[in-house]
């Protein structure tokens, strides 16, 4: 009598491959072998092709099992074939690494950690795997290449790209964090600060007797940010010079941004903020 091939549950498969059960489910989902359906894991056509099947249990109900032969499957031994870094996601979507990481952080899938990034439980649920650079020991997260097709990722990426949402001609422009600002340039700066996890206030009065408002205030570094727009208006230029003299006379930390900085915030701001003890 021929003996039936041994079948492994997903948790048993994970144990034999020295992985966590959560990581194993995430990898199988990233490979397209299983999918989440009504809070249950179900096999896809690809999973059935890989000889996945169901088993019934009085204790656990219906669950997925795999033939022992999948232990040597190339995709499971070399999961990097189906995974990529934030840089890879950026190349696939046409965005910078910094943009992708800020988007993932805004989604709550990663958080800043030890000069790098740590995957959250929500990030693990969509397939994120914690990694560490072998040379620098800086932590980072590896993602399923299929993440770019995830509905939540795609929706938020589209929202992220829509930096400017006009509320009304009276209200001005709305940033992602709800701040109402006067110009598209200010919204772009506000969105960058928000998605970088930097606490900030808008239109903050300077702590001096004279009446003057800063465009942005970052309490962590006691830093004020001013965006200087067009100087064609003599009244605007006069106000700019007045405010600059107030910052200097009162020894207030000031970071000045120009139109030319807006297309290079990912390079300009991290370096500038680091001088004031603000990491991002």
What do these coordinates show?
- 35% of the residues lie in helices and 26% in strands.
- It has 280 residues and is α+β, with helices and mostly antiparallel strands.
- The chain has three domains: 7-77, no CATH class; 82-157, no CATH class; 192-274, 3-Layer(aba) Sandwich (Endonuclease, Chain A).
- The chain is elongated, with a radius of gyration of 25 Å.
- It starts with 6 loop residues before the first strand and ends in a 6-residue tail after the last helix.
- Mean pLDDT is 86; it is low at 163-170.
How would you briefly describe this protein structure?
It is elongated, with a radius of gyration of 25 Å.
Layout of strands and helices, then pairs:
Elements: E1 7-9, H1 10-16, H2 21-30, E2 34-37, E3 40-43, H3 45-49, E4 53-57, E5 61-67, H4 74-77, E6 83-84, H5 86-93, H6 97-106, E7 110-113, E8 116-119, H7 121-125, E9 129-132, E10 139-144, H8 151-161, E11 165-168, E12 172-174, E13 180-181, H9 184-195, E14 201-205, E15 213-218, E16 223-227, H10 234-249, E17 253-257, H11 265-274
Parallel strand pairs: 16-17
Antiparallel strand pairs: 1-5, 2-3, 4-5, 6-10, 7-8, 9-10, 11-12, 12-13, 14-15, 15-16
Helix pairs in contact: 1-2, 5-6
Main attributes of the structure:
280 residues, alpha+beta, Endonuclease, Chain A, 3 domains, four-stranded mixed beta sheet, three-stranded antiparallel beta sheet, 35% helix, elongated, transferase, Glycerol kinase, kinase, kinase activity
């Amino acid at each position: 009598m021929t003996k039936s091939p041994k079948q492994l549950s997903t948790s048993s498969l994970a144990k034999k491959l020295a992985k966590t059960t959560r990581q194993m489910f995430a990898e199988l989902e990233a490979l397209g072998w299983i999918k989440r359906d009504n809070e249950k894991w179900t096999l896809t056509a690809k999973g059935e092709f890989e000889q996945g099947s169901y088993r019934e249990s009085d204790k656990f109900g219906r669950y997925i099992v795999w033939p022992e032969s999948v232990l040597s499957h190339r995709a499971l031994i070399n999961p990097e074939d189906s995974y990529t870094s934030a840089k890879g996601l950026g190349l696939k979507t046409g965005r910078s690494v910094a943009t992708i990481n800020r988007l993932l952080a805004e989604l709550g899938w990663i958080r800043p950690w030890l000069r790098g990034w740590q995957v959250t439980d929500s990030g693990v649920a969509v397939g994120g795997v914690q990694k560490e650079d072998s040379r620098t020991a800086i932590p980072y997260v590896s993602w399923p290449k299929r993440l770019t097709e995830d509905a939540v990722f795609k929706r938020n990426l589209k929202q992220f790209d829509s930096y400017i949402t006009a509320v009304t001609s009276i209200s001005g422009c709305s940033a992602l964090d709800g701040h109402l600002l006067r110009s598209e340039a200010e919204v772009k700066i506000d969105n960058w600060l928000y998605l970088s996890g930097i606490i900030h206030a808008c239109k903050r009065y300077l702590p001096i007797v004279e009446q003057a408002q800063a465009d942005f205030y970052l309490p962590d570094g006691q830093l004020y940010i001013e965006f200087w727009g067009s100087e064609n208006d003599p009244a605007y230029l006069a106000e700019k010079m007045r405010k600059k003299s107030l910052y200097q006379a009162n020894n207030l930390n000031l970071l000045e941004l120009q139109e030319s900085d807006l297309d290079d915030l990912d390079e300009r701001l991290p370096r500038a903020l680091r001088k004031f003890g603000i990491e991002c």
